[in-house]
Design a protein that fits this description.
Order of helices and strands: EEHHHHEEEE
Strand content: 35-45%
Radius of gyration: 17 Å
Oligomer: single chain
Shape: elongated
Number of strands: 6
CATH topology: Thiol Ester Dehydrase, Chain A
Number of domains: 1
């Protein structure tokens, strides 16, 4: 998977986030080999593992597993945001929609929007966000909403608002 550029190394804390802020996560190209490998390992349906069977399906060809597509979004999130963020853990995925097939050669573009930041008394905050992947034609292929647990900036810490 070809992954686009990684953004700034500024450390992000819960108080840096504002509802409505959108992160551009970059892009990733999905190859036929990746679709076949992921399918064989984790989702061995003929749509993801057998080109002839996939061609005869209603999709007319090989498509990526929805979980493979979700993994692409996760990789983009980690590279662009979570690797420089004070994220403690994921809490839940409240909605996951797989809206269109991902085919070999598709370039997927990711974004994450901050929906809500709920500070807690224990020095953490629950961050609700919406993630999305679109293909090169602008078709929304995957959308999710979820919550992650973030740390607040330690006393004397620095970081900019997003």
């Amino acid at each position: 998977m070809d992954v686009g550029p990684v953004v700034s190394a500024v450390r992000l804390y819960a108080e840096n986030l504002r509802p409505g802020a959108v992160f551009d996560l970059g892009s990733a190209k999905v190859s036929k080999e990746e679709i076949l490998d992921f399918g064989r390992r984790f989702d061995p349906l003929p749509l993801h593992t057998d080109e002839a069977a996939a061609a005869a399906s209603r999709f007319g060809g090989l498509i990526a597993s929805g979980f493979h597509t979700l993994a692409v979004l996760q990789r983009l999130l980690v590279d662009a945001v979570f690797s420089r963020a004070a994220v403690i853990a994921g809490r839940e995925i409240t909605s996951l929609r797989m809206l269109a097939p991902v085919r070999p050669g598709d370039v997927l573009h990711g974004s994450m929007e901050i929906v809500e930041v709920r500070p807690r008394d224990d020095g953490t905050a629950v961050v609700r966000s919406r993630g999305a992947l679109t293909n090169d034609s602008g078709t929304l292929v995957l959308e999710l909403q979820g919550e992650t647990l973030w740390e607040h900036r330690p006393p004397g810490g620095r970081g900019g608002t997003v």
